[in-house]
Write a structure and sequence with these properties.
The complex is a heterotrimer of chains A (276), B (821) and C (412). In chain A, 15% of the residues lie in helices and 15% in strands. By secondary structure, chain A is an alpha+beta fold. In chain A, strands 8-1-10-9 form a four-stranded mixed sheet. With 821 residues, chain B is of the alpha/beta class. In chain B, the strands form eight sheets. Chain B has a seven-stranded mixed sheet with strand order 5-4-17-16-15-6-7. In chain C, a hairpin with a 2-residue loop joins strand 1 and strand 2. Classes of the chains: A alpha+beta (276), B alpha/beta (821), C mainly alpha (412). Chains A and B meet through helix 1, strand 2, strand 3 and helix 4 of A and strand 3, helix 4, helix 8, helix 9 and strand 10 of B.
């Protein structure tokens, strides 16, 4: 079979709508279940617990009763062009795939030096401080899927945009003699699981895909955009305070997106009412 | 050559040096690296044939459609179905983690067992099903022979209307015990309120998807209220597209900046237990400004205006009371919500095209207050949102067939005549079905437990009841406890005999009308995998048990198997016609009109097979119903003032002064007001100077707080200021904490008159000052290392009062003090 | 007991005294050995490192000892390449200290990585874009060079010298030492630089990120410079410590003063450039990321005081002391200055490692703190114990200080 050169053709990414996100955590559970992520008895040690997809709880910091919280689901950002983690890896165990834009991780090659973790500002990379915990005597190894290999201790793992789902979709497409996969044929486990449909996944390079349209919206932003990591995970929020928390700003640097909503009433504390 | 020391050393050194020149070291280096890549203790999941099984999740009464991915006979992933009406695609975190409940053997009972250790210790030994049936049937027969079948009691947590709950009820009737008790749920409050105001008995039906203004009184829309799959999907829909042009506005009334409150368009924070007053304050503004639906009020309601009874006495109506007593200023005093907010809320609510006021407290697994619900429902009536698209619908109940009439033998007749231990349905609690807190008290007060044998179905009251640990004490007194739980929960650990159910992924079961759904739906789940262990579908267990008791009881259970019983009920669905058994996401079930497939079956068997495959029977939402005969109240109208309540209070007052009667029923309002929605300040016996704070339990969607254990996956989603190591956190406002001299992370003892627990302090601006919020779902003393001993259970501190009239526990008013540890 | 092994014409303490002297260091080694065993057997969960503190105590130790060990290559460079003859009196000390530092660091790194058995993948699957690969290659090669430099010193042992072949071999090695000095200089320049580069290239961590020249961020050059500025000082400190314990004068002042003077100039140059670097960063990288200098120190125990300490007390101050001949000729001032200089460099490495990682980049992330476990301390301190042990043994059995006999004639 002739190997196609898709160099730079696809660029998979996602848009997470923070307004829709309910903070339920299904994405985190779906991710862990899909990717055979180890579950240890103490998961409260957030510095060492593995959560490829992680929810951050943010607050507008205002006093009662004007307090508002929100959640930022944070998968791996799959930074484009020059991800901070890829160039630093000593053993070439992590790479940016130019055909898909996915930043991969090869567990069997990783030596566990953790330089990539130090380089990643999103905390998206997780080290296996312990051996995978799926006790046989409990039978917990029975729900493991063969599509994703469980990791040994001492290596770094991270969100792969459910790369095995991409492979699955590709296999199906090739079996049907197609070269391209459709928008809904390849979505990540978190996208699929979100009960509020807050996550949209697709090819950012394909103008027919919903994500390509969504990223043009003025409410769409990325995390730490100024640092230049070029994440392929975008966020969307109508709330200024949420957008402002996505990056660091010097006083006066943040320009609110002007929005007129119905809530522009005197007693509202909601979108468009935050002064920055 | 002679072997000298020198030669030897030379040979060794030479040998070592020589080996370096061979490929051996390189090979070894490579091999050990390959070994690290294939460590034998890292599992390698076996591959096999991939397949999918569709089913319905019934971990909660929400009933989402699920599709389970399998590899050979192993289930490896649960996903949401897109071809199911409830949850187009997504499911909640608990459902997502369900495979751990199936496969974590240490959470489960692997077969019928009898207790060998002390109660609560969790030590059991396996026995055969035959032995188990003999033990239990023998026990029940003995009671029946003694002529005391009422000493057999059942606690049943399977949702109301499900076939299992019908079978358990039937078993209790056949045995002859009136003591069939259910854990409280919001459905009890809905049922009672609807009965009093509308005369209807159908499930609550909120047409949320078609509403443009959702005024939620405490419903944890994003915390798992109703059918979480449906509500969160609606949430996504409401926020679809341009925020400036959104159709639906959401207002959350709650004292804490919960997810729902924060994510809603407006958050209004009244003091806990004053939601009813706020609703009436809104009603006041609407009535005063004349913005109410005069047509609905005049044509279809009763008790709005003042009225005269038969004897000519003049009684005040809803309007007079609301106008007199619930001005925004007065309500502001009660609730702490500013008058201008109340006015704006009322204007926005009355001005919306299809507003709906919904009621609940957190998830649906805890009851609410009757009068609060009536106040909220009065709001719906005021704006004419009853029986109107986007409001509260009044559909018929599901057309399930009734079981054939049963023979009740003389022993049973005798037993059924005995009073219920919980006094539900007596003059004092005329509209209640079941009052588990009274049941507990009755046992705890009696010198000897009036219950000889307690059977517990799909419930873990030891953990879930807001009773300050009262139920645990009751359990200790009951001579014989039987649990049918598949899980090693706290209540099961107290049991003497276990007849384990299969888990939800191993059995057939039904879901009846998910809470709050606006159209009738009957869900049917399928076994996804064969039962892993020696467990039995609890439906089959009940049928077999009935036969083991005696022929008289057994004759009421003519079915071969549980599936037969399911089928028998489902016949009604076929006879009713027009039910759909497949779903096309293009035309959602909540959408009126549109092209829809015809049912596509011609016989019951065809329908049954289609239901087994698709997991559903439903009827899409229809047009509003004819007003004629819609309300089945004495006045045949919607009753702002409930005539049933008027009658009930009159009945109870016979032979005593009305004032005393009202006081007995928990009421402080005068009789006229007592018959309609009004605000009753919750009472407490605690000295508020000693217990200055209020403790309020709250629920989270990412933690199971009911009888189902939380899948360990969920603990990944818990924040470190909710649980850290084995300590859960009490959330308080920084100002409150400062007063008590507490800082973030401090360990405190939260003490009420009922009990005390230790938790860490979490400072949160979004917490109402003066209130200590404790999360529900932590603090298990059963299960395995994933769940056991993590955090504390606020139920152990709750000092439950009694809701007036209904008698349901008031769990939102526990005065506590904080003592730094 | 071990007198046949002792060098000719010098006085050494009794075997027993030496034995007792080694005990505390052996204890440290045993502690480290147990820690290492636990970390290798059970995994890095034995430490308090985390996904936030991916680099922690061990990396601080590594970077510190590698910087301090820079005395070896730099003294070698001065002695053999620049022909500073007086430094021959101290070159052995510098080489041994360098060897101790580098071998200790390598051992710690071996435990620090999650999959030590696959450590060689760095070379096999090398990613040439990674600064850490450059570090690994250079350090490994340089450790071999140091070993080669160490061999002739070992071969000067009285007993070994009796073997003719070894003596000849040692002598020949000595002759070509300039080649190794040059190689060592080259390798060291790159790995010291790359160690700095490692942090400077983390462009998504504004606290560490630096602009630079071509592929090298400024930290690359600053790390080289700071290493050669403090390396000689550390060599001086070690010499002075040995002189203190042996109660002997071992190295002529000329050598010490020369090193101190060179250190002074290098340190001054370094401080000037470092100030420029700080300013460039504060007005470049930092505001571009939407941050201010103070914003890095809003939470946690770290503060601006660390930068003040690094630059003024441990930078400018020792530079001045070392620069003034009168001051550096005073024993006490010399030692204080050397100590401050070394502390400053360690502080600099600490800032780049620990503070970089402790400061959250995402505004909604929180500040984390970290305290090492006893296992981490064990392995870190084992390197200290190993250093003392090896250096003591070298002093006892090898003619480390060529002028020892001359300066301490045995009068009997």
């Amino acid at each position: 079979m002739k190997k196609e050169n898709d160099h730079g053709k696809h660029k998979y990414g996602m848009v997470i709508d923070i307004d829709k996100c309910t903070g339920c955590g299904t994405c985190m559970v779906a991710c862990a279940a899909e990717n055979n992520v180890s579950v240890r008895a103490d998961q409260s040690d957030k510095e060492r617990t593995i959560t490829w997809m992680r929810l951050y709880k943010i607050s507008n910091g205002k006093p009662f009763p004007h307090t508002e919280i929100s959640y930022i689901p944070r998968p791996c950002m799959h930074c484009d062009h020059h991800p901070p983690c890829v160039s630093v890896c000593v053993a070439t165990a992590t790479k940016l795939d130019f055909n898909t834009g996915i930043v991969s991780q090869i567990y069997t090659r990783c030596i566990g030096c953790r330089y990539c973790q130090a380089a990643c500002p999103y905390g998206a990379r997780y080290f296996n401080w312990w051996d995978a915990y799926f006790p046989k005597k409990k039978g917990l190894d029975r729900y493991l899927t063969p599509e994703v290999s469980p990791r040994m201790r001492g290596v770094v793992e991270k969100c792969t945009f459910c790369h095995h789902r991409f492979m699955r979709a590709k296999t199906v497409a090739y079996a049907e003699d197609r070269r391209e996969i459709e928008e809904d044929e390849y979505i990540t486990a978190c996208t699929e699981a979100c009960p509020a449909q807050a996550i949209t996944f697709g090819d950012l390079n394909n103008p027919d895909h919903e994500v390509a349209r969504l990223i043009k919206h003025p409410f769409t932003f990325r995390l730490l955009e100024r640092i230049g990591t070029e994440p392929k995970v975008y966020y969307h929020s109508s709330r200024d305070w949420v957008r402002k928390l996505a990056d660091n700003f010097l006083p006066g640097e943040y320009t609110p997106v002007v929005n007129q909503t119905w809530a522009e009433e005197e007693w509202s504390t909601k979108p468009g009412r935050d002064e920055f | 050559m002679k072997l000298t020391r020198r030669n030897f050393i030379a040979a060794v050194i030479g040998g070592i040096a020589g080996i370096q020149a061979t490929p051996l070291p390189w090979k070894f280096t490579d091999d050990v690296a390959i070994w690290t890549q294939n460590w034998p203790w890292v599992p390698v999941p076996p591959t096999g044939e991939f397949s999918e099984v569709t089913s319905v999740c019934n971990l909660c009464p929400g009933g989402c459609g699920i599709v389970v991915k399998k590899v050979d006979d192993r289930a490896v992933k649960i996903e949401g179905r897109t071809d199911y009406p409830i949850n187009p695609g997504g499911i909640c975190p608990v459902g997502m983690g369900g495979l751990q409940l199936l496969y974590d053997e240490s959470l489960r009972f692997t077969g019928p067992m009898k207790r060998v250790g002390l109660r609560g210790e969790g030590l059991f030994t396996e026995i055969s099903w035959g032995e188990a049936f003999d033990m239990l049937a023998g026990r029940i027969s003995t009671q029946r022979r003694k002529g005391a079948p009422e000493a057999v009691a059942a606690i049943d947590g399977s949702p109301e209307g499900t076939t299992v709950s019908e079978l358990v009820k039937r078993l209790m009737r056949a045995v002859g015990s009136p003591n069939y008790v259910r854990p409280p749920s919001i459905c009890d409050t809905y049922r009672m309120g609807n009965l009093l105001m509308q005369g209807t008995l159908s499930p609550m039906a909120y047409d949320l998807e078609n509403s443009d203004f959702v005024l939620s009184f405490g419903c944890g829309l994003l915390e798992g209220w109703g059918a979480p799959g449906r509500v969160m999907n609606a949430w996504g829909m409401w926020h679809q597209g341009n925020p400036a042009k959104r159709k639906t506005r959401i207002v959350q009334v709650e004292s804490r900046a919960s997810n729902t409150a924060s994510k809603a368009d407006i958050w209004v924070a009244p003091r806990p237990g004053t939601d009813g007053a706020l609703a009436l304050g809104i009603a006041h503004v609407i009535i005063k400004s004349g913005k109410y639906d005069a047509r609905f009020v005049s044509d279809h309601s009763w008790g709005f205006e003042d009225w005269r009874s038969m004897d000519g006495t003049r009684h005040t109506g809803f309007k007079t009371v609301v106008l007199e007593k619930y001005s925004p200023e007065k309500v502001a005093e009660i609730t702490g919500v500013e008058p201008k907010t109340i006015v704006s809320l009322a204007r926005a609510f009355a001005g919306a095209k299809a507003p709906v006021a919904i009621y609940g407290k957190g998830k649906d697994s805890l009851n609410g207050s009757l009068y609060e619900y009536m106040a909220v429902q009065s709001l719906n009536a005021l704006v004419g949102s009853i029986n109107r698209p986007g409001g509260v619908l009044l559909p018929d109940p599901l057309p399930l067939s009734n079981f054939p009439p049963m023979k009740v033998d003389s022993v049973a007749v005798g037993g059924l005549r005995k009073p219920r231990l919980d006094q539900a349905g007596t003059m004092r609690y005329p509209f209640s079905d079941s009052l588990i807190n009274n049941f507990t008290d009755a046992i705890n007060r009696a010198p000897r437990s009036p219950v000889d044998t307690l059977m517990v179905f799909s419930a873990n009251p030891f953990f879930t009841l807001p009773d300050g640990g009262g139920f645990k004490k009751a359990l200790e007194k009951i001579p014989f406890i039987v649990s049918f739980s598949p899980y090693r929960d706290e209540t099961a650990n107290m049991a003497d005999l276990i007849l384990p159910d299969s888990t939800y992924l191993e059995k057939m079961d039904d879901t009846v009308w998910p809470v709050g759904l606006q159209y009738p739906l009957y869900g049917l789940s399928q076994p996804v995998v064969e039962p892993l262990y020696n467990t039995k579908n609890v439906g089959d267990t009940v049928i077999e048990l009935s036969r083991a008791i005696d022929d008289s009881v057994g004759s009421s259970f003519p079915w071969e198997s549980f599936e037969e019983a399911l089928k028998e009920r489902a016949k009604g669905l076929f006879e009713a016609g027009e039910g759909l058994v497949s779903y096309d996401a293009g035309t959602p079930a909540w959408q009126r009109g549109g092209d829809r497939d015809k049912p596509g079956y011609s016989s019951f068997d065809e329908m049954w097979e289609a239901m087994k495959e698709g997991g559903m029977w439903y009827r899409p939402v229809g047009s509003p119903r004819d007003w004629q005969g819609l309300f089945n109240t004495p006045s045949k109208k919607f009753e702002f003032t409930s005539k049933l309540l008027v009658q009930a209070i009159a009945d109870y007052s016979k032979g005593q002064s009305e004032k005393k009667a009202l006081k007995d029923m928990g009421l402080s309002a005068p009789a006229d007001e007592a018959c309609m929605a009004h605000y009753e300040a919750p009472e407490t016996t605690a000295d508020r100077s000693e217990y200055p704070f209020l403790m309020l339990p709250y629920e989270m969607i990412n933690l199971a707080s009911g009888w189902i254990p939380s899948p360990p996956f969920l603990y990944k989603t818990i924040f470190e200021n909710q649980l850290l190591k084995d300590k859960s956190f009490a959330t308080v406002n920084p100002a409150t904490a400062a007063k008590a001299n507490l800082r973030q992370g401090d360990l405190v003892c939260i003490e009420s008159q009922a009990g005390k627990v230790e938790a860490r302090i979490n400072l949160f601006e979004g917490a109402m000052p003066g209130i200590v919020y404790l999360p529900l779902g932590f603090g298990h003393t059963a299960y395995d290392e994933f769940l056991k001993g993590k955090g504390v259970n606020p139920n152990n501190v709750v000092q439950a009062g009694q809701d007036p009239i209904s008698g349901y526990p008031v769990w939102w008013n526990t005065p506590v003090k904080l003592v730094k540890v | 007991m071990d007198s046949p092994l002792l060098p000719h014409g010098v006085k050494r303490c009794s075997t027993w005294a030496f034995f007792f002297w080694t005990l505390p260091w052996l204890a440290l080694l045993a502690w480290g050995g147990l820690s290492a065993f636990l970390c290798l057997w059970k995994g890095l969960n034995q430490t308090n490192m985390s996904n936030i503190f991916a680099f922690a105590l061990w990396i601080v130790f590594d970077l510190a000892v590698i910087a301090l060990g820079a005395g070896a290559f730099f003294t070698g460079f001065l002695t053999y390449i620049m022909g500073k003859k007086e430094l021959k009196n101290i070159i052995n000390t510098a080489v041994i200290i360098g060897f101790i530092c580098y071998s200790g660091a390598m051992a710690m790194l071996g435990i620090d990585i999650g999959q030590p058995i696959r450590g060689w993948f760095i070379f096999w699957h090398a990613n040439i874009h990674s600064m850490l690969v450059e570090v690994s290659f250079c350090i490994t090669c340089y450790l071999m060079v140091l070993a080669i430099e160490f061999i002739p010193i070992i071969l000067e042992n009285r007993k070994l010298e009796e073997i003719k072949e070894l003596r000849l071999f040692g002598h020949n090695l000595h002759e070509i030492m300039a080649v190794f000095a040059a190689t060592g200089t080259f390798l060291s320049f790159f790995h010291q630089g790359s160690l700095g580069g490692m942090f400077g290239v983390m462009y998504a961590r504004p606290f560490a990120a630096r602009e630079g020249f071509y592929i090298w961020p400024w930290t690359f050059f600053l790390f080289v410079l700071s290493a050669i500025a403090c390396g000689p000082c550390f060599t001086i400190l070690c010499t002075k410590l040995t002189e203190f314990f042996t109660r002997k004068k071992l190295v002529p002042d000329s050598a010490i003063q020369l090193l101190a003077k060179i250190s002074a100039w290098l340190l001054s140059l370094y401080i000037v450039l470092k100030i420029a670097d700080y300013l460039g960063w504060m007005y470049g990288v930092v505001p571009r990321s939407g941050l201010t200098f103070e914003s890095f120190f809003r939470e946690g125990p770290y503060g601006v005081w660390m930068v003040v300490a690094e630059m003024i007390f441990c930078g400018i101050l020792p530079a001045i002391i070392l620069m003034v001949p009168k001051a550096r000729q005073n024993q006490a001032w010399l030692i204080i200055a050397c100590l401050l200089n070394c502390t400053g460099i360690v502080l600099n490495r600490f800032l780049f490692i620990i503070v970089t990682l402790a400061i959250p980049v995402m505004p909604f992330d929180r500040f984390w703190s970290y305290l090492p476990t006893w296992q981490e301390w064990g392995i870190g301190l084992a390197v200290v114990g190993y250093g003392f042990l090896l250096f003591s043994a070298a002093y006892r059995y090898l003619p480390v200080f060529p002028k020892e006999r001359e300066l301490n004639p045995i009068t009997e």
